[in-house]
Amino acid sequence: MILISRKVESSYTRDVGRGVVRIDYNSMDELNVETGDVLEIKGKRRTVAKCLPLYPSDEGKGIIRIDGNGRNNIGVEEGNSISITKSSTVVAQKVTVTSLGGHKPETTSHPPIDEKYLTDALHLVPFTKGDNLMVPYYGDSIIYQVVNVEPDSNVEVRKNTVFTIIE
């Protein structure tokens, strides 16, 4: 297994909440990954994300771009170094989450979020137990913490994934 270290920088605005990280093409070659493959990212803790290439202006800088939620999931700040390696996911059968806050659906005229909405909103997003997930909701987002996943592995949401929300 090939393991490389990169300096953490903030994500591009378009990547916030999507469960992706960006590295340069040389790093992708070194890790033997392609666009869309899953990477394991390790800081103080570990998580997984989909790999996308950096914009050409960032090539060769030795960086990885991760959004704030991803940095929180691995316990690092911008400027810290982390390690990355190629990984994989399995389809999540069951996911249990609890809301950590953000937009409060019950205080607006918007409908409440249900389990089916989570399945749709997080389709193809990779994560692991203990991660926080950003769920878009009417121009805002709600943060959910993953309390449990079945199977207990790096997982990815698919249409048959069943969510349980703990209030």
Structure description:
By secondary structure, the protein is mainly beta. It folds into 2 domains: 3-86, Barwin-like endoglucanases; 90-166, Vcp-like ATPase, Chain A, domain 2 (Roll), CATH 3.10.330.10. Helix content is 13%, strand content 43%. The chain is built from 3 helices and 13 strands. It has helices spanning 25-31, 68-74, 115-121; strands at 3-10, 20-23, 38-42, 46-53, 63-66, 81-86, 90-91, 94-102, 126-127, 132-137, 140-150, 155-156, 162-166. Strands 1-5-2-4-3-6 form a 6-stranded mixed barrel. A 4-stranded mixed beta sheet has the order 10-11-8-13. A 3-stranded mixed beta sheet has the order 7-12-9, with no helix packed on it. A hairpin with a 3-residue loop joins strand 3 (38-42) and strand 4 (46-53). The model has no long low-confidence stretch (mean pLDDT 92).
Query: Uncertain regions: pLDDT < 50 for 5+ in a row?
Result: none
CATH level 1 name of the largest domain? Mainly Beta
The total beta strand count reads 13
Strand order, sheet with most strands: 1-5-2-4-3-6
| Overall body shape | globular
CATH topology (level 3) name of the largest domain: Barwin-like endoglucanases
Structural class: mainly beta
* Tally of individual domains: 2
Specify the biggest β-sheet. 6 strands, mixed, barrel
Helix content: 10-25%
SS strand fraction: 35-45%
Mean pLDDT: 92
Write the H/E string, N to C.
Answer: EEHEEEHEEEHEEEEE
Tell me the number of helical segments per DSSP (H or I, 4 or more residues long). Answer: 3
The termini sit apart by 40 Å
The radius of gyration over CA amounts to 16 Å
